[in-house]
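Letters spell out the chain; backbone shape is given numerically. Take this protein:
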Amino acid sequence: MSQLVIESREGRRIVGRIAHGEELHKRLLEVARRANVRAATLRGQGVIEDVSLAHYDRSSRAMGKARRLRGACTLLSLEGSISEHEGRTDVQVSCVVARAGDNGIEVLGGVVMGARVVAVEFVMDVMDDVMLRRRLDRQSGLVVWDEMLGDSPSRASSGNGDAAKAALEAAEAEERARVAEARSARAAFARPTGGSSSGSGSSGSGNNNSDHSSGSSSDGAGEDAMIEEVIDEADLVASSESDWATAAEASRVADAARAEAYDDDDGDDGYRPIQAGDLLDHNKFGRCVVERVDVNEEFATVRLRNNRLVRLNIEVLNLSYEGDEDGHQVFTTNPRR
């Protein structure tokens, strides 16, 4: 494949601070989504803790097992990018950190798989006239930039400006269609209003212990105990806007409450909260992408393979951490009976 190069001439600069206790990837992802960022570079400084770093293993053509660094680390360098991968916003971050060791100061670096913020300030340089898409490179096993789209001939990586512009417009139309599909899905796959789901019809007590097999239809009603509701993608954005200011404190409370809902077989890694961007292998729905974890409730919003959005009851799911894949945590479900 020839070298991919594109020029951006229109952009913005977003500057911000991430509050104590936040998960680094999750908050950067929320900033990108709220600001409609499709392509950007990142840099930052500050202090993080409980950071997991991984390195590329050439022999296996994959990222090796992440190393978990306990305690606080000073960020000497934080660099990253925002682009699109499989239709969703993707944040990739690498860092160099320093911490106190037995023999003085240790300096370590790698790809960030997860990190909790003590205090981080960041700058996001956004390219508004460019869309970057990642795909799996089978030769290296890495997810790399494979397509670069611009809105004018001089900025098109393919040399065909009209085609690139059309592709960019098509991608935006696809996003609008996805929202419309989510709205229609609400009517076709709505929350049950009685029968087998304990009869309340609302999240009320949050204790959905109905039998999965009773009163279920062929369209997936058997998952009543795990599904709170199908949601509208526009609602997802709106709810993110509304809880932004209080998310830091609420997230810490929610993390503590959710800890008992996870089975973690790796004693060294400890509790791993599920977060936006994670992958979920659901026992009935298959591979899902976590779009959002509510900060005041015990629900995760996930996108199914058909782009339908549903909210799942985390307490019922009984999640198990299985490892990392392309920088994203992977969980499986073992529903409680």
Remarks:
- The chain is about 20% helix and 40% strand.
- The helical segments are 24-34, 161-188, 233-242, 247-258, 314-317.
